[in-house]
């Protein structure tokens, strides 16, 4: 037996021993991750076993969703692929229920530390990881997205639609080709400003984007990168120390974005709440509903930092996803004139006194047009705004998902863009076919389970009905009011990923005043 007298070892020797111990630990960890971990049996690039850099690089190059999809394409038939040392993506219907579903077992899958990077001045409904706080927040704000609230919001949507259509009338009169997605972005930014802050940005009137829109995108990109790092909430500050120009640009945008949200909300409190409707009651928009919201069990209301966090989250969710969905509906309807003609016919039958689309279209009737709704859902199936997996952590004891054992503390999820094109779920999955959602011979239950355009389970987008309301009102009004076609009928539009998936190129449409009954 060899006995080492610690007191006889000098400082340099102690340091060397410590470094050797750290090196040995790191080497053992790498060997375990590469060859011995249960995750080592899951297919994926070998680098993903020891570092998240491949995913970070794919995110930086705006191809994260495509990268995950390519891993499944390279491993045909694989139920799961490894995307990082402690990250696994699944592509199977059963994984959705296991990871995101309701029930006691599903409760064990908590949100991963990725969400911490999106907690700004406080936890929002989106970013909070606590099931208890999420349930409380959802109880507080649920009435803000109820059927009654949709009716209260509709006048603001109609006012903004009227401004938008007056701009479209000018394009229709001249026959000038123009980038309609650009205008959709202006519309949704102004609309969400109206609904969330009590005032719009005036971008539809000026035809120029607000800086706020750019700040939102850059800030979310910063959150995405920091969320991949294994440091939880501290990753935000750690990443801000990185002296790379790209990172510093994103960090400065995040700070400016949060400051803008603070000033806008302060203005709302100081000025807009004083404004009342002719009824004498406060203006009833989403933010007013948030301000008035209280937990029915405790009576608690949201404080200013929470409202600020909810405002920031709401602007991202509403403006970005709404505009890109309207873009895809426009593109696919122009590429599929038969479907477009059927929807127009449905609209003319339902609204015989509004054949020129100049009157406001009530959502209470519009939401009964199943083909129009199916067209929206089909676009979101093919092009979900968030294409990659929303991560959940496996419970400490681990979990078996689709027959695959995953150790505890691993971020797992189902990428919406991948499962949405799963050939075992959807027939001809790459084809845009809204009729698939009314095909009684199809497994509609499984198809709906695998539709993650708005998320799944208790954490799905609470603003789904608000988004659908203004999206279908916009498309219905355009179809009744104009003949709409692509400037380049042969256009094939793909996606490029920012924080959300957007068109990979600019494209133009041509509008002409439409004569009723002519499609």
TrEMBL record:
One MF term in the entry's GO annotations: oxidoreductase activity, acting on paired donors, with incorporation or reduction of molecular oxygen
Pfam families membership: p450 (PF00067)
Cofactor(s) needed: heme
InterPro entries the UniProt entry points to: Cyt_P450, Cyt_P450_CS, Cyt_P450_E_grp-I, Cyt_P450_sf, Cytochrome_P450_monoxygenase
Entry binding sites for heme: 461
Domain of life per record: Eukaryota
Keywords noted in UniProt: Heme, Iron, Membrane, Metal-binding, Monooxygenase, Oxidoreductase, Transmembrane, Transmembrane helix
Transmembrane annotation, as ranges: 14-35
UniProt family annotation: Belongs to the cytochrome P450 family.
Protein name: Cytochrome P450
Organism classification: Eukaryota, Fungi, Dikarya, Ascomycota, Pezizomycotina
């Amino acid at each position: 037996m060899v006995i080492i007298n610690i007191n006889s070892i000098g400082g340099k020797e102690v340091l060397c021993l410590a470094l050797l111990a750290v090196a040995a630990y790191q080497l053992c960890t790498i060997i375990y991750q590469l060859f011995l971990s249960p995750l080592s049996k899951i297919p994926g690039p070998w680098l993903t076993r020891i570092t998240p850099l491949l995913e970070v690089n794919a995110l930086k190059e705006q191809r994260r969703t495509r990268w995950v999809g390519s891993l499944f394409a390279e491993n045909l038939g694989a139920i799961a692929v490894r995307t990082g040392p402690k990250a696994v993506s699944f592509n199977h219907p059963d994984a959705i229920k296991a990871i995101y579903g309701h029930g006691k077992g599903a409760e064990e899958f908590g949100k991963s530390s990725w969400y911490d990077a999106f907690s700004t001045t406080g936890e929002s409904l989106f970013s909070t990881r606590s099931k208890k706080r999420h349930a409380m927040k959802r109880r507080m704000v649920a009435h803000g997205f109820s059927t009654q609230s949709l009716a209260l919001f509709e006048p603001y949507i109609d006012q903004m639609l009227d401004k938008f259509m007056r701009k479209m009338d000018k394009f229709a009169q001249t026959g000038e080709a123009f980038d309609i997605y650009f205008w959709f972005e202006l519309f949704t930014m102004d609309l969400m400003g109206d609904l969330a802050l009590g005032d719009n940005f005036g971008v539809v009137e000026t035809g120029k984007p607000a800086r706020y829109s750019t700040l939102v995108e850059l800030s979310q990109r910063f959150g995405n990168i920091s969320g991949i790092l294994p440091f939880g909430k501290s990753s935000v500050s750690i990443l801000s120390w990185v002296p790379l120009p790209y990172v510093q640009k994103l960090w400065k945008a995040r700070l400016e974005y949060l400051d803008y949200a603070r000033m806008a909300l302060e203005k709302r409190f100081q000025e807009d709440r004083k404004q009342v409707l002719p009824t004498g009651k406060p203006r009833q928009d989403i933010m007013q509903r948030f301000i008035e919201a209280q937990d029915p069990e405790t009576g608690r209301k949201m404080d200013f930092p929470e409202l600020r966090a909810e405002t920031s989250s709401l602007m991202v969710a509403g403006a970005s996803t709404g505009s890109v969905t309207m873009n895809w509906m426009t593109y696919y309807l122009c590429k599929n004139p038969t479907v477009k003609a059927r929807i127009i016919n449905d609209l003319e039958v339902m609204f015989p006194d509004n054949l020129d689309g100049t009157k406001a279209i009530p959502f209470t009737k519009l939401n009964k047009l199943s083909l129009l709704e199916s067209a929206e859902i089909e676009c979101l199936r093919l092009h979900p705004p968030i294409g990659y997996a929303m991560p959940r952590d496996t419970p400490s004891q681990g979990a078996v998902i689709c027959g695959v054992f995953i150790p505890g503390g691993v971020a797992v999820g189902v990428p919406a863009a991948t499962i949405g094109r799963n050939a075992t779920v959807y027939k001809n999955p790459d084809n845009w076919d809204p009729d698939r959602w009314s095909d009684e011979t199809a497994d509609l239950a499984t198809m709906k389970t695998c539709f993650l355009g708005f998320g799944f389970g208790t954490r799905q987008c609470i603003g789904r009905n608000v988004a659908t309301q203004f999206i279908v009102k916009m498309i219905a009004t355009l179809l009744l009011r104009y003949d709409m076609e692509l400037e380049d009928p042969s256009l094939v539009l793909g996606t490029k990923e920012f924080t959300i998936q957007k068109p990979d190129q600019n494209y133009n449409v041509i509008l002409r005043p439409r004569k009723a009954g002519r499609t």
